[in-house]
Every structure is written in C-alpha cells, then in structure tokens.
Amino acid sequence: MNMSFNLNTLLRDNIKNLVPYSSARDEFKGEASVLLDANENAFGSPLAQHYNRYPDPLQHQVKHKLSTIKGVPVENIFLGNGSDEAIDILYRAFCRPQVDNVILVPPTYGMYEVSANINDVPVRKVNLTADYELDMENIAEAIDINTKMIFICSPNNPTGNSINRKDIETILTYFPGIVVIDEAYINYSRHKSFTQELAEYPNLVILQTLSKAWGLAALRLGMAFASKEIIDIFNKIKPPYNINQATQELVLEALNGVDIVNEWIKEAVAERDKLASHLEKFEQVYHITPSDANFILVKLQEPRALYTYLVSKGIIVRDRSKVELCEGCLRITVGTPEENKNLIAALQQFYN
C-alpha cells in the first residue's frame, strides 16, 4: 500500500469544484416508456434501426459484461472513446498547465506526449535502459513535488517487451502520484494484468483497449480500470454521451466471442514466433527484441530503404529507425499466415 498517496491533494482545484453536466437520464433509474426530456426527435431516424435516442451515458450493460470477463467490479471501470480519451482526462484532472509535470519513459506510445502538449503540461523523459527496462535511479531523480503522473506501457510499444513487474510495483509503492500502466497488448503477454492489484494500489490506473486482440479498432472503445474514487473523477469530466449507441451495441455483441478471441490470440502468438524465426535467418537482421505483443521490433540493415521498398509492394510496416533506442529498427505487426509469407518473400527479394 502506498501510504503517501492522497488523491485529494493531486486533483486540480477546478476539477474538485466542477459541477458535471447532468442529464435527466442520469437522474432516474429503471426503464421509461415516454421520453420527453432531451429534445430528441420522437419520430425515429432514417435508418432501419432507430438511433434517435441518446445512449446510456455510463454504458451500464457493456460495463457489466466487461466486469464478468475482466473480473473487475463495474464501479472500477471507465469506458472512453479509445484509450486516448482516458489519457486526456488524466491530464485534465491532475495536471495544472505549465506547473505540474509527468514522467515518460521513451521509447513509448506517442500519445502520452501529444496529450501532454495539448494540455500544456511539461514532460520529463527518462529513457529506458539499453535492454528496454525502467531506469529506476534516473526516474527517482526526475520526480519533484509537481510530478503528478508516470506513464508505463507494458508490454511496451514499440519495443514489445513487458516491463519488469517488481520495478513497476516499487514505483506504485513509493511514488505519491498517479501511475498509469498501459496494457493495450496484455492479451498477447505471458504476464498477468495489474487489474487484480487495484485494491492494493490506490494510485494505479490501468489502460486497456478493444482495438487489438478483440479486433474492434474501428469502434474506438478504450477502458480504464482504477479505484472508484478515480473512476468517479473520469465520469465527472467526460462528455455526457462519450460512447455512442452503435458502438455499445456492437461491443456487447462482440463480447460474446471470448472463445474466438482466445483462439486468435493463440494463433497470433504462434505466428509471431514463426515470423521471428524466419527473420532470424536473414544475415541482414541484427536483432529481434523478444515480444509479448502482436508485433516485433526488428533491427536490420538499410531499414529506411527496406521500408520504402515494402511500401512499393503494398506492404506497410512502421519505420522506427529514427526513434531513440530504436535506431535501425522497423516495427512489424504480426499478420495472417499469408500476409507474413508475403512479407518474408518481399524481404528475400530486397536482400538478394
């Protein structure tokens, strides 16, 4: 337990005093037969399925379904328009512009810094070590009285490795601010999620998404798991109807497909290992970072020229060769067996 953590002292004064928007749908419980509160078009919508009514502002049905799957109480779940909405809310809740700061550990997911810049919050970067682990000593030195959050992506993007769990637990125990663990790729990992540790760490916020293993990237549904007190803050700040009705319906339907998603995960992991094995045979491939995600980071000869060549063949990977600590690297998502074969064939053509 982090005894030095005090949520009330971290929260911005304007958020403490914020009176959130409240709709009539928030103010009654149960089912209504006549809805005359929200100035909706009572006659319907020009679609086969009516979308003339506003959606459930707190997405109760989706949260109950996710609660069963994730083993996390409904009161500890926030749903956002992608994880990006949750990231933005964290900045708006806890960071005073130009006063407070956050710590990022590059190379990592770029939206943490973009969102900081949008919210005018200074960023302190403490690079990962050469083997892509946390630099604990320099993180400790970077923390000051105005450091409100530390973002840790695990499994990390773009490197693919899981961050040492004991290091994360140390930060959770001793850092008096918010620790955000982004688990977008946790379904592909050999390591367990931090979601079962919520009761132990009041300063813990976990981000997950339905965009990766669940294959719902186009629906833009992100999840945050945290204490009830932090989730209440998220709900206080979010727009009243941040998850549209069509997304809620489609996600509810998709959440019945746990078995097929688990099969896809197994196949993706098997393909990841097979792809890495094929790539290791190229003498122009210098290093492949062991991955717990659905992608691999590959250090190789002529990364930019190879990237351009692959584009000419209609194969799109991510060029990370100019990112610090990822010099000379391409990030390659694991595709279907056929897509992976096409990639290997293109590499053979390029290097031969």
Notable features of this structure?
13 helices; amino-acid biosynthesis; 36% helix; alpha/beta; Aspartate Aminotransferase, domain 2; seven-stranded mixed sheet; single chain; 352 residues; pyridoxal phosphate; Aspartate Aminotransferase, domain 1
Description:
- It is a single chain.
- The protein is an alpha/beta fold and 352 residues long.
- It has 2 domains: 7-25 and 56-256, Type I PLP-dependent aspartate aminotransferase-like (Major domain) (Aspartate Aminotransferase, domain 2, 3-Layer(aba) Sandwich), CATH 3.40.640.10; 259-351, Aspartate Aminotransferase, domain 1.
- It has helices spanning 7-10, 13-16, 24-27, 60-70, 83-94, 111-118, 136-142, 165-174, 228-237, 245-254, 258-280, 303-312, 337-351, and strands at 77-81, 101-104, 123-125, 147-153, 178-182, 204-209, 221-225, 285-288, 295-300, 318-319, 329-333.
- Strands 1-7-6-5-4-2-3 form a 7-stranded mixed sheet, sandwiched between helices. The protein has a 4-stranded antiparallel sheet with strand order 8-9-11-10, covered by helices on one side.
- Helix 5 crosses helix 6 (111-118).
- It starts with 6 loop residues before the first helix and ends with a helix.
- 35% of the residues are buried.
- The model has no long low-confidence stretch (mean pLDDT 96).
- Its cofactor is pyridoxal 5'-phosphate.
- The modification N6-(pyridoxal phosphate)lysine is found at residue 212.
- Pfam families: Aminotran_1_2.
